Amino acid sequence: MPLPIKYGFPRFLVSMISLCLALFAVIVFASSVGPVSVPFEQTIAIILKKLGLHMEASFTERELLVISEVRLPRILVGALIGAALGISGAAMQGVFRNPLVEPGYVGVSSGAAVGAVCALFFGWSQFSVWALPLSAFIGAALAVIIILAVWRGSRSRSIATLLLLGIGINSLLSALINIMVASSTNDQELRSIIFWLQGGLEARTWEHVQLIILPIMVGCLITLSFGRHLNMMLLGDDQAASSGVNVRRTRYILLALASLMTGSAVAVSGIIGFVGLVVPHMIRLLTGPDHRFLLPASALGGAIFLVLADVISRMILQPVTLQVGVVCACMGAPLFIALILRSRKGGRTT
């Protein structure tokens, strides 16, 4: 699909460079601010030191410990999760040809939530620190497998049917979560469930970074290779098939990749909404509708969005820390409404 002239490659290149610089600036800012403030120069020097580079700037052992062992792992987990949700949202909006779709629509988030709540409700999380993320990931995978199996066995294999199945499974899984919440007799257990369902990045370590970096990075790289296929699919299944795209296989692969990335993200952060819905809309204003450009830009935009949301969650009500999922909802909902109003206004003027 040819690019409109106003969204040509030069504009995309400028947008990508700007997003990369913005992401680095946001990471430096997020690493600097907090109860223990660290000057930007020292922060950059510490980050470069972690990358194996050297910068002429002195910093204390305390500053090194605060940034490298406390803040930087949390920020990188947030950036990886934001990238996963952003690119997954852009890919799924292309697969369903619907700008109102996000990864949670096919049961990934709800499945992960059921798995995590089961781990908390039945006490599995007491046996290992990894029991919670592992249970969440298994729940996400099972939810997607069930939805795709039912969709494949149904008479109608349309995209609308798949969306309806996702809505139905999400409702069922939400009901299961509510049953476990209502049945909980332990106050600490109940608080842990609610805390996880709100989504957060507290106490994230380098082990969490290592847990999610491989599936998210591999998923992002493979998804990027399907930019042209998504462009063809926007024209309709018949047109895409006549252009040499195996529509069914491409759809399954992209759904699997989105589920892998979203499941990995939700497994360590809890439910975080609006990133996969709002970010692709905002990025389209910069790069246009071409998925070859939209996908990588959405990954960077999602990382920036979530790291900024985490900074706000830590700083806005000090010493109280809000859940980043709550902040994302507060930021994402108004932005989404504004984008809808903007698109409606644009439709009337054309």
Automatic annotation (TrEMBL):
One of its GO terms (biological process) is siderophore-iron import into cell. The keyword Transmembrane applies. This is Iron ABC transporter permease. Belongs to the binding-protein-dependent transport system permease family. FecCD subfamily. GO terms for cellular component: plasma membrane. Gene3D superfamilies: ABC transporter involved in vitamin B12 uptake, BtuC (1.10.3470.10). It is found in: Cell membrane. It comes from the Bacteria. The keyword NAD does not apply. The chain crosses the membrane at residues 12-33, 72-92, 104-124, 130-150, 162-182, 211-231, 252-281, 293-313, 320-341. Keywords: Cell membrane, Membrane, Transmembrane, Transmembrane helix, Transport. It is a multi-pass membrane protein.
